[in-house]
Give the backbone structure.
Amino acid sequence: MPFRWVLEPALGLILFCVWLISGLALDIETALTLLFYCAAVSLSRVLPGVALGLISAAVLLDVASSSTLETPFRLIGLVAVLITVFGVAAHSGKVVRWLDFVAAILLGPAVAYLFTVRGQLKFPLFGPVIGGYYTSQGVGLLLMSLLLVVAFVACWFVGFLVARQRATGSMEGSSVLVWLASSGGTRVTDPEVESVGLVRRLTRTELAFDVAGAVAFAFSCLILDAVSIFGFGSDGGPRSGFLVMIAFALAIAVRRVSPAVALALAWLAAILQMTTGHSIQFSDIGVLIVLYATAAYGDRIVRWSGLISAGVGAFVAALYLTLTAALSQNYLNVLSSAIAQLALQFAFLFVVSITVLGLSWVLGLLMRTWRTARLSRRAQAEAELDRARAVEDVVVEQERTRIARDMHDVVAHSLAVVIAQADGARYARHTDPGSVDEALKIIASTARSALGDVRVLLAELRHAQPEGPQPSLEDLDRTIDQIRAAGLDVSFERVGDLSLLGSAQQIAAYRIVQEALTNALRHGDTATSASVVLAETSDENAGPGVTITVRNTMKPLSIDTPAGGTGALPRIGHGLPGMRERATLAGGSLSAGPTGDWFVVKAFLPAGATA
């Protein structure tokens, strides 16, 4: 519906029609006042500043009028003030909104004066006469002013929260109240908005539970407050008690959907209850439920508004109960002698009221704290789970990288040996046919060993643990024999105690030597011998360990020599980075590069416990 601005003019027109249909007095002053009331309602969305001025002018004209109007006309004016205060707060800018708040406080005593002194709502005449008015009239005016100020401020508060929610940009589809207020007026940009303060999203189950609870509450009130609601033996009549019960039930129904609206409804119900002369009844439990909801479910502003409401409500309730008790016992006829007793009674009622209302608010705050702590624990558990999954992913990725390095080492070494043996057998088959059989045996043995290693690596991919023995320093002799058989003479020397290396370090040492000799066979000068030295040593920082040194002669460079590996120019491949990463993961270090005519791979692996 793009024309929501017609809502307020329609409400103003309805108020005007009610005045015409009710057959109230028609004179110039009254008609002008009513037009101001209706115009303020009609312009509260599109021109909130003008509406605020019109509603103030309407109340001032009403106060200055010489005619005494009937109560229905006063009710029309009261409804107009409530709607205008809400509309201006919901659709105006910051300055006009706070002017509206001040006007809500100032209009309360003026409207109370219209209802009591100028209207038909009269209080008993007793007590001392001051300025031509009885003391009871002044007390009644004070109490009525306080109640109306609270009602106007409650409407302003709901409008303020509507403006806050519009500032968040999450208006559509939230609630009927927000939908009606979602267009027109000045857009609010409040940097201190912490969350949407008017409407909370509930599941259908939660919403159905709240509505069912409100219905059960209404039925309980019908049973327990039958005298007040139906007027059995009461002078107040059934209508006001029934309206009070309905207002409290509505507040309970929306207490979780919108704690702010529930708080405003509870205040309006309490004001209606006090202005119609009802005493404490079962439906007043709704106040406690609403205060609990403001602390448990409201945002920062609603939460602290609930606490302020508890204090103000305790004061108003104590004052109301004290005055009604004094009136019923004729204390005010002898006010001078009963003032101490009334003050003591007021203090006692205030302490009891603030304790009950404050306890409800505190219980809601404790529930909020418990719920926040539970959500924090859940979030912490989820974060720990995410961290564990991330660590697991890293471990898996590291394992895959290790397996890829092992696969590269096994395949590269085996293929290098197979290629060297096949080339040698092809060239020697005419001169030395017996060497062909020996080369084929070495090729078959190397391929068979490589196939076994690949199976072990594939098993590691399928399972958490490998299905076979891992290589160690004891297997270096077999690997070096394969390199020698492939055509590269290798000298191997062990110095010191090499058993101090753990299993992980031994696997790393084996793979480093295997990869270095494979590179020497593929890219180095096979005419000269290579050397492998494993020596026990000690590092200043890492402590005892084993130093691995592999040397081979590089091929002489020419224009026709392809660059690569340890035999010519260094190139980027899997061999050298893989060796360096293996040494790093084992806690050591590795360096590789040409030194004169030699290519030297030197690694240090620290001692470690055997797995």
